[in-house]
Amino acid sequence: DNPNTYISCGAAPPAGALPCTTLLAGSAVAMPVEQELVCSTVVGLGDPVMDILAHVSHDFLKTVASEPGGCFPVSPEEMAELLKKAGEQSDLKRIPGGSAANVVKALAVISGGSVPCKFVGMVARDDTGDEYRSKLSATGVAPLLLESTSGAPSASALCLVTPDGQRTMRTCLGASLELRAAAQVPPS
Predict the structure, then answer these.
(1) pLDDT at 48 over 70
(2) Which residues, including other chains, have CB under 8 Å from residue 170's CB and lie 6 or more apart?
(3) Calpha distance 79→57 (Å, rounded)
(4) Does the keyword Kinase apply (predicted)?
(5) Are 174 and 155 in contact (CB under 8 A)?
(6) CA end-to-end span of the chain
(7) For residue 20, which phi and psi values (nearest 5 degrees)?
(8) What is the dihedral of CA 48, 89, 85, 76, to 10 degrees?
(9) What's the rounded mean pLDDT across residues 70-85?
(10) Cβ atoms 169, 160 nearer than 8 A
């Protein structure tokens, strides 16, 4: 929020600018005005989480959560059951998310596509992983996603929203937790 800092992304660096490749891990980078940053590529590294939004009643929420609000981890089996039940109550809206991916998606939009944006993470070989890859690509971000073969599902976060706007979240990080070493990161 400091008016003396900003990011400038463009094809040709102005005189005195510092050309670079910026690696983001869920946060933005700001440089002082006298050191304008010109991004040649933006890469995010993080958990590829499919955000799933469902509008539900208070009565439904009582059947799946002990109390409204909060965010708690659940097992893959619990998530599958929650998604089944929520899908019977609401059309589910699915959006590729995760902190680092959201930052990279925003940078792809504000650069107008002039800066190559990439995201590195791990998904499962499942429908959610395929959908994540496809939808992330549609936002202008190149997905560099490894595929887990462990049997863990791709990560998902279910956000149950009641009519008063209260959000109750359940997350299953699944395969995203398996990206542990730089040697696993695919070459661009």
Answers:
(1) yes
(2) 65, 71, 72, 73, 74, 78, 79, 82, 157, 158, 160
(3) 19
(4) yes
(5) yes
(6) 32
(7) -160, 170
(8) 10
(9) 96
(10) yes
Backbone dihedral angles phi then psi of residue 150, each to the nearest 5 degrees: -75, -20
Provide the CATH topology of domain 45-179: UDP-N-acetylmuramoyl-L-alanine:D-glutamate ligase (3.40.1190)
**H-assigned helices in 40-159:** 58-64, 76-89, 99-110, 127-138
**How far are the Cα atoms of 7, 10, 95, 102 from residue 113, in angstroms, in the given order?**
15, 10, 20, 15
Tokens of 37: 């940053």
Per the listing, tokens 């190149």 go with 142
Please state, in angstroms and rounded to a whole number, the distance separating the CA atoms of residues 111 and 41.
11
Report residue 24 as tokens. 């983001």
Which one has a higher pLDDT value, 90 or 30?
90
Q: What is the residue extent of each domain of the chain? A: 45-179
Q: Give which of 127, 115, 123, 64 is closest to 98, Cα–Cα.
A: 123
Above 50 in pLDDT, residue 155?
A: yes
68: confidence class by pLDDT, cuts 50, 70, 90: confident
Amino acid occupying residue 170: R
Cα distances (Å, whole numbers) of residue 85 to 68, 147, 166, 182: 16, 28, 18, 38
On the 0-12 / 13-18 / 19+ scale of CB atoms within 10 A, 182 is exposed
Tens-place pLDDT, residues 26-37: 444 444 434 445
